[in-house]
Specification:
binds zinc ion
Length: 481
């Protein structure tokens, strides 16, 4: 392609706090509509907002985790516009002085080397409410409802420099950002619940050009996959426009997940004018250098450090450590299992393999799974105690995920106990020997593989429940006499 792609991302992240930003209403997802509200977040005249320190602490943690310079003095501005989800007629945000600036995070670029993506600003603001269009009843077709539970929830907006050069880089940036926010304990970053939202600016230019091309803005991308696809779609669209000698129009486009294409929302004639000014009701945000330093010192272990420690402390292969630390809750899950069953490689195999596959199927994160670390430990102990075989253990895990029952209960109810009773197995072994004279011969003739075949026959006859080691011993003893 003869053009260079220039992408910048604006990401809104909801902070994990007990309370909303300027009132003591709970910051909670999926409550009944409008229950988490009060005069402050409903924008009643005369209600006095007051910033809670918890939100500031989280925003500060996010800023230092993203290597930002932190403003010791900043304040909130009013960004004035009208929309029904914003009852005050303005949003409280940080327009003139962001809390964090000049930060960066590192990703792999398209050539596989490490690249710094500049973060221009990290600022605090309040979230808006939510319009509900699919309200039931007769009026549904001609009305919308509004839920103010989200109004006033603390957000940070994280704005990159125009440093990203492809849709893949954009996706990698988002994955890294999500990991950092989760490890820092700042946000759960659940895109499907709206706690991470992303807008993108895209333009093209001839490589070597200093000036940027005309950019368009993309909105409404609700998964990392959607971000990547809509960027690809938009890049292709702009290439076609430029190749035909036309000019790209300054537009805001919306990604339509069903149609898999971008749709024009509005054409921008000039910059939006929000008449921003400092909010006269809120005290300025003041921090000391010591508080910033403390936040830096208190940063929890991030993904790379943790992966490194998994290799050093548990002797795991780097691959395992990378997979397990890809999300914080997975890494936490793994380490919780270890406190109950201290065989790192075994736990790693099961967590990365069967457990992850089930999570993926169910669309769950590790911390949402009913199958808790104690269940995993229980399952692995049963293999060690030869109560079940490894093969049966997979079946037990399937059933446990399906039914929500404990592993030991599944084993008992499904009759999956391993057969370690010699006399019971002997009868089956005898039968297999009698039915396979040729295989017995070739084993005697030195083909050790033949034994495996017969073990398989016994396992099949017992539907996988025979103790394979015992079967092996019995076969050898009987054939070799
Ligand atoms: Zn409130």
């Amino acid at each position: 392609m003869k053009y260079e792609v220039v992408i910048g991302l604006e990401v809104h992240v909801e902070l994990l706090t007990e309370c909303k930003l300027f009132c003591s209403c709970p910051n909670r997802f999926a409550s009944e509509p409008n229950v988490n509200t009060c005069p402050v977040c409903l924008g009643f005249p005369g209600a006095m907002p007051q910033m809670n320190r918890e939100s500031l602490q989280q925003a500060l943690t996010a800023s230092v985790a993203l290597n930002c310079e932190v403003a010791l003095y900043s304040y909130f501005d009013r960004k004035n516009y009208f929309y029904p989800d914003m009852p005050k007629g303005y949003q409280i945000s940080q327009y003139y002085i962001p809390l964090g600036s000049k930060g960066f995070l590192e990703i792999e670029d398209d050539q596989g080397s490490l690249k710094k993506v500049g973060i221009g600003r990290v600022h605090m603001e309040e979230d808006a409410g939510k319009l509900v269009h699919e309200a039931g009843g007769e009026a549904a077709a001609r009305s919308s409802m509004v839920d103010y539970n989200r109004a006033g929830v603390p957000l940070i907006e994280i704005v990159t420099e125009p440093d990203l050069r492809s849709s893949e880089e954009a996706r990698r940036y988002l994955e890294k950002l999500k990991s950092i926010m989760q490890y820092a304990g700042v946000s759960d970053c659940k895109m499907e619940e709206g706690s991470l939202r992303c807008d993108a600016n895209v333009s093209l230019r001839i490589p070597g050009d200093q000036a940027f091309g005309i950019k368009t803005e993309l909105k409404n991308m609700n998964s990392f996959r959607a971000v990547e696809k809509s960027l690809d779609h938009e890049i292709k669209r702009q290439v076609e426009i430029l190749n035909s000698g036309e000019k790209v129009a300054t537009q805001t486009l919306r990604w339509d997940e069903d149609k898999q294409e971008t749709i024009v929302m509005r054409v921008k004639l000039e910059a939006d004018d929000y008449r921003c000014f400092a909010d006269p009701e809120l005290a300025p945000i003041e921090l000391t250098a010591e508080e910033v330093e403390q936040a830096l010192q208190n940063l929890p272990e991030m993904a790379e450090e943790r992966a490194h420690r998994f290799v050093e402390e548990y002797g795991l292969p780097e691959y395992d450590a990378g997979v397990l630390t890809a999300s914080r809750c997975m890494a936490d899950y793994f380490e919780s299992c270890l406190t109950l069953y201290n065989k790192p490689k075994e736990v790693s195999n099961w967590v990365m393999g069967e457990f992850s596959a089930h999570l993926k199927n169910a669309g769950l994160e590790a911390d949402q799974a009913f199958f808790r670390p104690e269940d995993m430990a229980e399952l692995l102990k049963m293999i060690d105690e030869q109560v079940i075989s490894g093969k049966i253990a997979k079946k037990v895990l399937d059933k446990a995920f399906e039914s929500g029952k404990k592993p030991r209960q599944v084993v008992e109810e499904e009759g999956l106990l391993q057969i370690s009773d010699q006399s019971e197995l002997e009868a089956i072994v005898d039968q297999v020997i009698a039915e396979n004279p040729d295989t017995v011969e070739s084993y005697r003739g030195g083909k050790s593989k033949a034994l495996g075949h017969m073990v398989g026959q016994v396992m099949k006859a017992t539907r996988g429940k025979a103790n394979p080691q015992l079967v092996n011993e019995l076969l050898v003893k009987k054939i070799d006499g």
